[in-house]
Amino acid sequence: MSANVCPVCGDGVEIFQKTGMWKSLLTAALYDISLQMNATLELLPVFGAVNLAKNDDGEWDDYITPLLDGSVIFAAMVRPARDTYEVIQITRPTLFDSVTFVYALPEPIIFNPLIRLVLPFQLSVWSAVISSVIATFLILKAILYCRKKRFYESKILKLRIVNSLKMQIALDAKHQIDPVFRVESIAILGVVVKPILDIASIESKLLAKCLSGNLSRCMISLWLLLLISLGCGYKSKLVEIIALPNYNSPPTTFKELAESDFTIGCVMYTGQIEDDFIAKNSSISNALLPRIQEQEFLSPDCYKNVFQPKTVCMGFKFVFAGIGYYHMVDVHKRLMFAQSPETWFFSYTAMGISQHYPELNAPMDQVLQSYENGGLAVKWKNFATQIYLKKGQKNAIEHSKVNKRYLGVVNIDDDSFPVLLMQVLLIGKIISFSLFVLEFINYWRNKRSVQENLISDHLISRRIAVR
């Protein structure tokens, strides 16, 4: 009694004789029927795809074709359809499946710890913050300039009433008035920037007197309220970024996959998944169709390519739970891939029987139902998973010297936070030293200017006294 089975099901009887466990429900059912018929079971692995209907040349797939002439009695996997029922017998469903895609497990993003200081906000937010700082500085500068101009205009008007002999009083008055409004731009910028660093914005009485107007107070109040919300958001996100590792986020839905620039490999594409995508005819399926690259489901290319940057592999779930385990398991028998939570094109397969043997349909249905009702189907499925994981482990050990990924995830202590503290401390010292140098230069420049003003005032006083 011959039967077409899947490519990895040919050794099912041998494994049963060694372990007493079946790797496949279908192989067990075929073996049971052969015992009832007192026949010798011959398993014929088929490496072709399971199609829903005839291909473009009007031919059936490799599972159904031998059933038509009776050269093979059973086909372990066929997809029931209207045309299929007309040429062969079909049993109860044996496998429910759908199309999914898999991708490599996300890996932490390695970057300079200092960059984490700017990660809490996006570039647009940082641009808005910088623009707000500049705008607030210019507004405060304009307010102070208008107050200063209005004050001098009123003072000059008063001085015109006084005769010219009071010139010295005017000069003295000017020197007494100037310090109130002689606030440098760096001081006004400090009023805007210091609250960002949790430093008091107005530290001197002179600066407080200059910015004591209603407009200045209103502007500073609005700026401080804005900084409260920005500061809370920044600090909370910074704690999250420092405490939690940052991972690349691969697409997890077909919509995200269509919007991404990922390379898409696909197994069992022609005659199966391709037809389903064409029949769906949606914006997402139409966007994915030109990008899908067909690959052989027995070849390791599609499965191993998921470890390349921005690459996924698409196919039926049972393929990744079988052949996929062989190529995507590490040396500890842990899965190295993740499966998309969204699946498309729900379908099921059944066992096909040649129409030359109609008496075998009912016994096969009865055997399959007894396995499912007795829980053997789940038990054998778990046993098969362990076999695939063990084979995948052996493959990982062989390839671990070439590809370190097969060694599995290694727990590495994250020392980015201490490095971040050291970098911030070093930069702080550099900035402090630079500011000290600038203040020292500014001190000598102001000292020289004061000396020149004193000499100039002294000479003017002497000229007035001589007159």
From TrEMBL:
<feature type="transmembrane region" description="Helical">
    <location>
        <begin position="123"/>
        <end position="146"/>
    </location>
</feature>
<keyword id="KW-0675">Receptor</keyword>
<keyword id="KW-0325">Glycoprotein</keyword>
<keyword id="KW-1003">Cell membrane</keyword>
<keyword id="KW-0812">Transmembrane</keyword>
<dbReference type="GO" id="GO:0005886">
    <property type="term" value="C:plasma membrane"/>
</dbReference>
<protein>
    <recommendedName>
        <fullName>Ionotropic glutamate receptor C-terminal domain-containing protein</fullName>
    </recommendedName>
</protein>
<keyword id="KW-1133">Transmembrane helix</keyword>
<keyword id="KW-0472">Membrane</keyword>
<dbReference type="InterPro" id="IPR052192">
    <property type="entry name" value="Insect_Ionotropic_Sensory_Rcpt"/>
</dbReference>
<feature type="transmembrane region" description="Helical">
    <location>
        <begin position="420"/>
        <end position="441"/>
    </location>
</feature>
